[in-house]
Amino acid sequence: MLKTEELQINIGPQHPSTHGVFRLIATVDGETVVDLKPVFGYLHRNHEQLAEVSTYIQCMPYTDRLDYFNSMANNFALAVAVEKLAGIEVPERANYIRVLMAELTRIQNHAAAIGFLINDMGAWQTPLAFGMREREKILDLFEMASGARMMCNYFRFGGVWRDLPPEFMPELKQLMQGLPSFFDEFERLLRDNEILRVRSIGVGTLPREVALLYSVTGPLLRASGIAYDIRKAEPYSVYDQLDFDVPIGSVGDVYDRFLVRIEEMRQSYRIVQQVIERLPQTSGEHINPAFADIGKQKALRPPTGDAYGRVESPKGELGFYLVSDGSPRPYRYKVRAPSFINLTPLGDMCRGHKVADIVVILGSIDIVLGEVDR
Amino acid sequence: MTTEFERGHAYVVDRGEIQLRYGQGMAAGLGVIMRHFRDAFTKKLTNPSETSGMFTVQYPEERLTLPDAFRNFPILLYDDESGQELCTSCFQCERICPPQVIHITQEKDPNTGKPVPAAAEFLIEYDACMSCGLCAEVCPFEAIKMDHEFELSTDEHGGLTIDKAGLDRPVSYYEQIAPSFWAEARDNAYKKLQNAVKRRSGLIGIAPQVAEKLKATQVIEQPSVADEGQTTKDEGSTPADDKASRLAAIRARNAAKQAETNGTTDAAPQPTAPADDKAARLAAIRARNAARKTDANGVAEGAPQPTAPADDKAARLAAIRAANTAKKAAEEPRIERQEPAQAPQPADDKAARLAAIRAANAAKKVAQIEGDAHDHSPNGTNGTK
């Protein structure tokens, strides 16, 4: 028997496959990963402390920069938390616009996430470009409504910044016509692909018990077979009035995560369809009239107390825990970032697999370092 | 495992069995890619429902139209006709700005010292601005808006701290880039602007670009008033006599230079009175610069001017006035006067320095003679002390 020696290797922090500034310390025995330790914090921006010296509305543009793929979802979470804290009503129309934006965000995030996953497997750029193409169309819509493609800063306490512009709906309806064929093609392109199957089936399995122990959320948890979706478990906004299903996986490997994301895009598509139907009949304005003036948002002083607002962001449970001491600034501002928590079981998932699989498993988690490090 | 929810249920995704074997799956995928590859060269993606075709834009030759809501960096608006800025320096934007990159100084009435609803200085650090648009949203006067211009790269870090002159845009510009936004804001903006203008006076609250034009026209209309302003401003630092003489000296020098090159057509001397002993040196530097310019262009462009003359007429008028003053004030020091103009043909730095020294000497001499002579030479400037 050949005597082998364990070797520690560093992947990152500057590495094209680490999705950002992120370092992995892998202990390998030959090609097999014995242990893996994720090291993060390279992108720390002091988000939480910064928020504690900012007024509530000033925090809103900073949340764009958490998970910069899904700024609408981040805005949503902060808005939900502050509204809970201050007891602000949200008009029906505002809620539907919010849900519309959140679901479009999910579609574009998953399209890009799958593209990047395939990219990590070696299908360099081409499938990613297809995902990015659809994403661009959705970002165009965001730009039309909010003024920015990625740093949307669209949500306000009690509603959204402005109503959808008149040219928004026709554009969205056109986009919706093309989306189903995109989902089908995207799935077909990759599902039967032998390389993809070999590289993903049975790789990076996260058993449901382990997933629960790590308090993993989002598509990662659902791929492990647990039907936990905050939109169902603790419906916020108008999700309790919308029909949609929760896709779950059975094994919890990379392949399941890929399939769950594809299905989630289809479910989000269903939601957007319902929103388009109902939006013209909704009551109320795009924002609670009491808070339509931004001066009111600026002067917001929630009563003393605390609140935890959470949403199902495309990456998992995004929560904001706010403590108010009655001043216009949050006393404590804590972000429960899904990327960060989903990243912690990376070592468990990688153990026993080959070095080349690390990158694939990391890609399947779908992290954004802006959110991991905050 | 399936779970029922109130509206919908959980379902297990179908992992499926591999249906195509021996690389057929890959070949099928390759087919899809080939189709897209072909479309990318033959078909232009025209609307969002299409999922293949060329969808990239050949920037910068080709540009997408930006939606009205598009926001990049903040700009300040001013009224096209009057040049009145909409900003009243209420500090709302400075307070809400999350990264705190807006810095405003409020204008004060020069006579009473009371604050006036206008911004004396308005700085925005574009390099730290995060384009959130909260400033534009909070502004009650519709004065600060988000620009659509995004090609702002510079190789100089400090160049991205923009002052009022760099931020000011006419209302018509904003109306053109974001018509629907301006349509909503217009009435409110003008109503509030009228109120603000009532409390402003003179050039306070006028956009720098417009203010310069106005200043130039004011010189023609009421020259004595303009000169008066100049004199009173400087009086604090030096005795009026001394200063006046220096002023005359500079004018004389400029006039001489003018005569030297090509007479009276251009060259508007700048009546800025140096406040201290540096005056002569400053004059020398100016003379040298002027000479350089003359050298380079072959045509006399006159003394270097921080403010460009509004038109030829104003320049000529100023030139004639200066020439007259010079004639009156200094009959004698013709030789010295010619020197600074003649000497500088700066082939190199040395020559330039030499010219500067000569010019300095000349200016000093002129100043001396002027100082003696000026009691007998009444001119508009002296009359105001």
Task: Tell me the span between the first and last alpha carbons of chain B.
Answer: 97 Å
C-alpha Rg of chain A (nearest Å)? 21 Å
> What is the average of the pLDDT values of chain B?
69
The portion of residues assigned to helices of chain A is 40-55%
Q: Report the strand count of chain A.
A: 11
- Return Rg of chain B in Å: 32 Å
Decide which structural class fits the backbone of chain A: alpha+beta
Number of strands of chain B: 8
Task: Give the strand order, joined by hyphens, for the main sheet of chain A.
Answer: 1-4-5
- How are the strands of the largest sheet of chain B arranged? 6-3-8
Biggest pleated-sheet summary of chain A? 3 strands, antiparallel
Low-confidence stretches of chain A: none
Overall geometry of chain B: elongated
Q: What shape does the CA trace of chain A take?
A: globular
- Taken in chain order, the helices and strands of chain A follow as EEEEEHHHHHEEHHHHHEHHEEEHHHH
Largest interface: chains, residues each:
A-B, 72 and 53 residues
Kindly report the oligomeric state of this protein: heterodimer
Main sheet characteristics of chain B: 3 strands, mixed
Q: What is the arithmetic mean of pLDDT of chain A?
A: 87
